[in-house]
Design goal:
By secondary structure, the chain is of the alpha+beta class. 14% of the residues lie in helices and 24% in strands. Strands 1, 4, 5, 6, 7, 8, 9, 10, 11 and 12 form a ten-stranded antiparallel β-sheet that branches. The longest helix is centred in the N-terminal third of the chain and has 55 residues.
């Protein structure tokens, strides 16, 4: 009878071979997992970038399209070419800013008493009127009217509003309304004190610009995160000052906002384009620097020479370009370049057939500020362009709202 064989384990060589094979398999699985996770993060980052730029464009478009409703065309749109939000001044190589004005659809009051620095309303306020808010006071028939600015926040249920009589501040999209909205001297005219009281409506001011913050809220470094900001020109935080602290972030990762303007033209004459190869006049300067006799008037015919000059009332199309970037850099890639001619993605999405072309970053130049440089850095980027025609700038007369109002 054969003796049974004693059981024996694996040899050292077998163990080493098995361990090596297992390590290779696990390494392969790990590499696949890391690769898939990296691709997922990259796709998620790009989706977030595209979502952010679409959200930002939609919000800005809605306000630009409504610009000039119930507001004189000469103060409906203010341009701020290359705005440095940190220094609150014109810079070189910065994103643009734009401010639009439109009448509030719901606010309407009668001014029972019109003073040189106050208005007394016929009904209590339903919400506070904050310092910096713009009011339009319309005489009966709306032939004469005045734009004024609230000087001190009036609380809800108040019936008296103090007006700002101080000198106009530095013109800025991150500050209070300027000289165009401080016509308190006009309130001394007889029609504001007639037996039929004037109507008071509110004008909404919406300023859009780009600034950058780090994780601690400190502004503008190359590694900080850019935001598209909305500033209403009012003292939101009730600190008595109207400045950048009163702005609201709209969309994260918006690295560039570039704006250009197509002006009015007749027939087959090519329309003038402002803001590509030239500097746009800063804010209210575009209106004020135009000689009085050359400024468009509401009653002017559309073919009037005054409606064909370089003036913000003659804007017929606003061209917007937004660049959004990922909030985190990817150290494994160079990052997208949407500025350098010939770089992949630098030309942006194709325009519809027949659309006049324009450079996607307009007048940014080749040396943008480091915090807003849309090249490399490991960031994914998306570019969105749009053209908006603010039809309300064709308004030819002021009007008094017929609704009973509120607000």
């Amino acid at each position: 009878m054969r003796a049974p064989r004693r059981p024996h384990g694996f040899t050292l060589i077998e163990l080493l071979v098995g361990t090596a094979i297992g390590a290779l398999v696990l390494t392969g699985i790990g590499l696949v997992f890391v690769s898939q996770a990296s691709q997922y993060q990259a796709h998620a980052s790009r989706r977030a970038v595209q979502s952010s730029v679409r959200q930002a464009m939609g919000f800005v478009e809605r306000h630009v399209r409504n610009a000039g409703y119930g507001v004189d065309p000469d103060r409906a749109i203010l341009a701020y070419d290359s705005f440095d939000a940190v220094s609150n001044a014109h810079g070189v190589g910065y994103p643009d800013g734009i401010t639009v004005h439109a009448r509030d659809l719901y606010f309407r009051r009668r001014a029972t008493t019109v003073g040189t620095d106050f208005l007394r309303l016929d009904a209590p306020l339903q919400r506070p009127l904050r310092k910096g808010e713009i009011l339009l006071v319309l005489c009966p028939g709306a032939v004469r009217y005045a734009y004024v600015t609230v000087g001190e926040t009036a609380p809800a249920k108040a019936t008296s509003v103090k007006l700002d009589t101080t000198p106009a501040p530095v013109d800025s999209p991150a500050g209070p309304p300027g000289a165009l909205f401080r016509e308190v001297d006009t309130l001394s005219e007889a029609c504001f004190h007639d037996s039929e009281p004037p109507v008071v409506v509110r004008v909404e001011r919406s300023s859009f610009y780009v600034t950058s913050f780090d994780d601690d809220g400190n502004p503008a470094t190359a590694s900080s995160t850019p935001y598209l900001m909305l500033h209403r020109g009012v003292d939101i935080n009730d600190d008595g000052a109207i400045d950048g602290a009163d702005a609201t972030p709209l969309a994260v990762g918006i690295e560039q906002l570039q704006v250009a303007y197509i002006l009015n033209t007749l027939g087959d004459t090519p329309p003038p384009l402002v803001g590509v190869d030239d500097d746009v006049p800063w804010g209210e300067t575009w209106h004020i620097a135009t000689p009085e006799l050359e400024r468009p008037r509401l009653e002017d015919a559309y073919s009037s020479p005054r409606r064909l000059g370089s003036h913000p009332a003659n804007i017929r199309q606003v061209r917007l370009t937004l660049v959004a970037r990922s909030t985190r850099a990817d150290s494994q890639r160079q990052g997208d370049d949407v500025l350098t001619p010939g770089a992949a993605g630098a030309e942006g999405p194709a325009l519809p057939s027949g659309t006049p072309t324009w450079r996607q970053l307009e007048n940014l130049g080749t040396t943008p500020a480091s915090a807003f440089d849309p090249r490399g850095g490991g960031f994914s980027r998306a570019v969105l362009r749009g053209s908006i025609a603010p039809k309300n700038l064709l308004m030819r007369s002021q009007f008094t709202p017929v609704h009973r109002g509120g607000g």
